[in-house]
Specification:
about 250 residues; Rossmann fold; 8 helices; about 15% strand; binds NADP nicotinamide-adenine-dinucleotide phosphate
Length: about 250
C-alpha cells in the first residue's frame, strides 16, 4: 500500500494538501503536534474518500523526534514525502526571541534536511518524489522576517541543488520545491508571537497582505500540479492567481 507523507498537516497548507491527495485516492501519513486536529482529519478523510490515514504526533523541532519518527515510517511504501511543517518570525533580527528563532531553524532547516537526507538515501533509485515547501520569501528577501526568509532560501537552494545533482547522476527520485506566496493559514498568527514590531505597523502590513492572500485549497491545487509535472520548482505569484513551473532558478557553479 502506497502513502503520501505530509509534515505539518494539522492546519493550513499541509491540511489542504492532505485533503487534495486524499481526494485523488492516495493513502496518507500525517504528522504534527496537535493530535486532535490530526485525528479529526483522519476520521473525515477515511470516511469521505475510503483511504487509509496514519497519524503520528511529534514536535519535529526536536532532533530525537525527527529520527524516531523517520524510523517508525521508513518501512512504509512512501511515494511522496512532503516537508511542509514550518513557521515564521515577524521581527527585525536583533529583536527576535532567541529560543523562538532556534526552534524555527530547527524545524524549517534541520528537520527538513534530516528527513530529506534519510528519504533520499532509502529511495534514490525509486519512482518517488520529495517535495520541500519553501516560500516566495525563499527567492526574494522579506525584510519583515529576514531570518525566516533566510531559512527558506536554504530550502530553495538545498532543494534545487539536490534536484540538479540527482539529474546529473541519472537517479530516479524526483526532488521538487513548492514556493507558496502569502496564504490564509495560521502562519501570520505564529509569525507575530513574540514580535516586537509596532502593532499599528503589523496591522497595516497584514491588511496589505490579506488583499493578495491565497486560500490553502488553491495552494494544494498548485502543489498537485507540481506533483504531476516533470518540473523542479513551483512558484506562486505573489499578486495574481498564477503558478509558475520552472526547472531552474539559481545559477549552478
Ligand atoms: N501561509 C503563508 O503565507 C506561507 C507562505 C509561504 C510559505 N509558507 C510555508 O508553508 C508551510 C505551511 O505553513 P502554513 O502557512 O500552512 O502555516 P500553519 O497553518 O501554521 O501550518 C503549519 C503546520 O506546521 C506544523 N508545525 C508547526 N510547528 C511544528 C513542530 N514543531 N512540529 C511539528 N509540526 C509543526 C503545524 O502543526 P502543529 O501546530 O499541530 O504542530 C501546522 O500543521 C510552512 O513551511 C510555511 O513556511 C507559508
Amino acid at each position: 500500500m502506497k502513502y503520501v507523507l505530509i509534515t505539518g498537516a494539522s492546519s493550513g497548507i499541509g491540511k489542504a494538501l492532505a485533503e487534495k491527495f486524499a481526494k485523488q485516492n492516495h493513502n496518507l501519513i500525517i504528522v504534527a503536534r496537535r493530535d486532535k486536529l490530526l485525528n479529526d482529519l483522519k476520521k473525515e478523510l477515511e470516511i469521505k474518500y475510503k483511504i487509509r490515514v496514519l497519524v503520528y504526533v511529534y514536535d519535529l523541532s526536536i532532533y530525537e523526534n525527527v529520527i524516531k519518527f523517520y524510523d517508525q515510517i521508513k518501512n512504509f511504501d512512501i511515494e511522496v514525502f512532503i516537508n511542509n511543517a514550518g513557521f515564521g518570525d515577524r521581527n527585525d533580527p536583533w529583536d527576535s526571541d532567541l529560543y523562538k528563532i532556534k526552534k524555527m531553524i530547527d524545524l524549517n532547516i534541520t528537520a527538513l534536511t534530516i528527513f530529506s537526507i534519510l528519504f533520499i538515501k532509502d529511495n534514490l533509485n525509486k519512482d518517488v518524489q520529495l517535495i520541500n515547501v519553501s516560500s516566495t520569501a525563499g527567492y526574494k528577501i522579506w525584510l519583515g522576517g529576514i531570518i525566516y526568509s533566510a531559512s527558506k532560501f536554504y530550502v530553495s537552494v538545498f532543494g534545487e541543488g539536490i534536484a540538479k545533482l540527482i539529474l546529473e547522476k541519472k537517479a530516479k527520485l524526483k526532488m521538487k520545491i513548492l514556493a507558496p506566496s502569502s496564504t490564509k493559514t495560521e502562519f501570520v498568527t505564529r509569525s507575530v508571537v513574540k514580535s516586537k514590531v509596532d502593532q499599528k505597523i503589523l496591522k497595516e502590513s497584514e491588511a496589505k497582505r490579506s488583499f493578495y492572500q491565497k486560500s490553502p485549497q488553491l495552494l494544494a491545487e498548485y502543489a498537485y500540479k507540481l506533483y504531476q509535472s516533470d518540473k523542479i520548482i513551483g512558484i506562486v505569484d505573489s499578486f495574481k492567481d498564477k503558478f509558475y513551473l520552472e526547472d531552474n532558478y539559481f545559477e549552478i557553479m
